[in-house]
């Protein structure tokens, strides 16, 4: 017997259903599918396969994407193209810095951050292309992309803290306490980041939690970033007091670093409170990519080796020897007046005078 719902009861007593439903709404909304057998008191034992689409078959950009994912793939493709350009420019600048012996580990960290961000975008593009073509995302590629982007953010944050400490700008060696604090910060960030993804995999309900930072590990990461911002401000001010000749660079660094540390928590707060649920994921993803892009492109501009660039930070050469007992804290590399010292004199002897006559 075939029912109007598209279901038919077989000779074995199993009801098999094969049907389609189409809904049209003026705006994105949640749809809930309910199954019930009102004549039974034993409940339902259901095995089902369900494909929910948002557009006619063949519409790649919308068919298998939910309303809050419509614009993520175009944004990721644009991001990947832009980061290919940024990475090419960074390699060009790195070659110039290397020829001048100014290619420090801080700039290498910046290039590693760019590379991780590009890798993350490419992995997420692969996952979303699979979703658009087959209706199923590549979960492993998506996770790898998220981890790569988290690594990019962590590397850039460490770069900001190193520059705030004056490393490769005003000194070439960090103290033991500074190294210990940086290792602790990176370890805590990595632990919370891994906990965040494990928490998402084990506990998150995709129907209720729409943003990854709506969780205790996410709040912990936000708090850690605020603490890092406070340390960043205090260390920048202390470095400026010690060496005011780098005022132009550290004024730019204060603005860049403050925007970097504060925009992410403010974005999380804004997205969670003010953004509608059906656009939350797209807005959060776009905002996160935009913040990281601004940080990268601004640092690339500030570190360009140009004569007119008064904010150029690097003047300590990579071949420079650390002075004994100075622990890299002095600034003897800076241009300044030099006092001429007589090392030895050549006097004309009587024998030489007699020969000349």
From TrEMBL:
Ranges where the GPR180-like N-terminal domain occurs: 6-48
Keywords annotated in UniProt: Glycoprotein, Membrane, Transmembrane, Transmembrane helix
All residue ranges annotated as the GPR180/TMEM145 transmembrane domain in the record: 80-299
Membrane spanning residue stretches: 30-50, 70-95, 107-129, 141-167, 179-199, 219-237, 249-275, 287-303
Membrane topology: Multi-pass membrane protein
UniProt key word Transferase: no
Subcellular location: Membrane
Predominant location: membrane
Gene Ontology biological-process annotations: G protein-coupled receptor signaling pathway; response to pheromone
One Gene Ontology CC term in the entry: membrane
PANTHER family, per database record: INTIMAL THICKNESS RECEPTOR-RELATED, TRANSMEMBRANE PROTEIN 145
Stated name of the protein: Transmembrane protein 145
């Amino acid at each position: 017997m075939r029912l109007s719902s598209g279901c038919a009861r077989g000779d074995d007593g199993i009801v098999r259903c094969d049907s389609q439903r189409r809904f049209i709404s003026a705006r994105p909304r949640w749809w809930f599918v309910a199954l019930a057998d009102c004549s039974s008191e034993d409940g339902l034992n259901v095995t089902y396969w369900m494909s929910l689409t948002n557009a006619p078959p063949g519409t790649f950009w919308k068919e298998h994407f939910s309303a809050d994912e419509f614009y993520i793939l175009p944004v990721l493709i644009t991001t990947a193209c832009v980061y290919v350009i940024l990475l090419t420019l960074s390699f060009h600048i790195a070659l110039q810095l290397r020829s001048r012996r100014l290619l420090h580990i801080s700039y290498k960290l910046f290039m590693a951050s760019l590379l991780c961000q590009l890798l993350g975008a490419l992995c997420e593009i692969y996952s979303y292309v699979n979703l658009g073509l087959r209706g199923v995302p590549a979960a492993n590629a998506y996770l790898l992309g998220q981890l790569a982007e988290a690594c990019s953010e962590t590397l850039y944050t460490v770069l900001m803290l190193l520059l705030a400490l004056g490393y490769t700008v005003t000194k070439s060696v960090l103290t033991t306490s500074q190294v210990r604090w940086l290792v602790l910060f990176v370890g805590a960030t990595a632990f919370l980041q891994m906990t965040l993804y494990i928490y998402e995999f084990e506990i998150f309900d995709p129907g209720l939690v729409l943003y990854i930072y709506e969780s205790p590990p996410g709040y912990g990461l936000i708090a850690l970033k605020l603490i890092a911002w406070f340390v960043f401000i205090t260390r920048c001010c202390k470095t400026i007091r010690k060496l005011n000749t780098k005022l132009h660079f550290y004024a730019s660094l204060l603005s860049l670093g403050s925007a970097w540390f504060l925009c992410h928590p403010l974005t999380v707060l804004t997205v969670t409170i003010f953004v509608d649920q059906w656009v939350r994921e797209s807005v959060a993803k776009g905002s996160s990519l935009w913040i990281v892009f601004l940080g990268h492109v601004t640092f690339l501009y500030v570190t360009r080796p140009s004569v007119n660039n008064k904010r150029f930070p690097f003047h300590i050469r990579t071949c420079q020897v650390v002075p004994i007992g100075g622990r890299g804290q002095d600034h003897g590399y800076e241009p300044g007046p030099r006092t001429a010292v007589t090392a030895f004199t050549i006097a004309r002897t009587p024998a030489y005078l007699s020969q000349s006559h």
